[in-house]
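Troubleshooting: if your tokenizer reports a length mismatch, compare your output against this known-good record of 374 residues.
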Amino acid sequence: MALGRRIASRAVRSPTSFEEWKEEALERRRAGLQTLEPISFREYAELFLANHFREKSARYFKSSYYCIHSYFMPLIGEKLVHEIDQSDIVAIRNDLRGKGHAPKSIRNCLGLLFTMFRKAIDNGFASRNPVEGVERPRNVTRTEQQPWTDEDFLFIMRNAPEDIRRAVLVLYSTGMRRGELFHLEKNDFDLMNGFVRIKSVEGKTTNTYKARIVPITDAVMKLVVQIPGPSIMGVTEKAFEHRWLYFKKTRQFERRLHELRHTFISRMLKSGVDKKTVMEWVGHETSEITDRYSHMIPERMEDYRTKVNRGVGVDENFINGSEASITPLWRPNGDHFSEPKKIPSQSEDLEGTFCSGGGIRTHDQVINSHLLCR
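Known-good structure output:
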């Protein structure tokens, strides 16, 4: 029986390194042998997981592991790698579609399969890449993100529990991603110079794998001082997600936390911070960390903090709830965008409409806000 037809029913080999099998493949080619070493996709996946992710992030490994074991194994796990063809890949793609996965998720899974078969070819387990030529779903244009209004922000600070208020205040004031927030600790804040280090270390990486520094407002500095434990949030991201979704459902609040990132960018640009600096703060730059921040520490940090305070418009009393107010957002030429807005206390008797759970709203706010009485 030909070597390429042997049944790969043996135990999983010890995953030492791909280099050894690559040398064997080269020797076979030098000897004129065109046969491929048979290996099941299940065996090969174990080798791939053990070797390919040594210098990759834990997040990438986790998502790839889930994709391989949940979506690939049930359909092609027992097939020999060199016998898998385009029809098998199309079956995986259609299965993902049938399960309701987004086009981007399907493209990511097919991209992972493409990498796996490219490595298989390099190491003598396959002669062709069956993912080539398989049509991938087009990326759907994302819905344009809309910044939060002042009413949205004030509603959260007036009605949400403490951990949600804390998360919203930090995200609103720094533009960081939600995943980055849950890796923050108190020692990441330099309260002497007024900035926070958003770190990128193993298991806590940023999307760009680069650490960065962001100025913080007076309100965030005061908040950090009041937090008792070492962690800024004090809960896991998963636990927070349940509380956040429950709050949105019960209060009929339809905004997303990621939109706070766009809110920060918008307010910073309007307050006079140059675009390049804003992109550095939110992590859209790929330059080296020393070149990026050498001009910010510490000479220009106070100037940046002034602009951030002016752009965010939140004073130190904001974390006290009922005393909170948003100051006008001023243009660089001195004109202001809006009038000051304050959270009304529960005892204030203001002329307007009261919505259950939504606080008191004036007539114009009721008409223009999504927090209508339902």
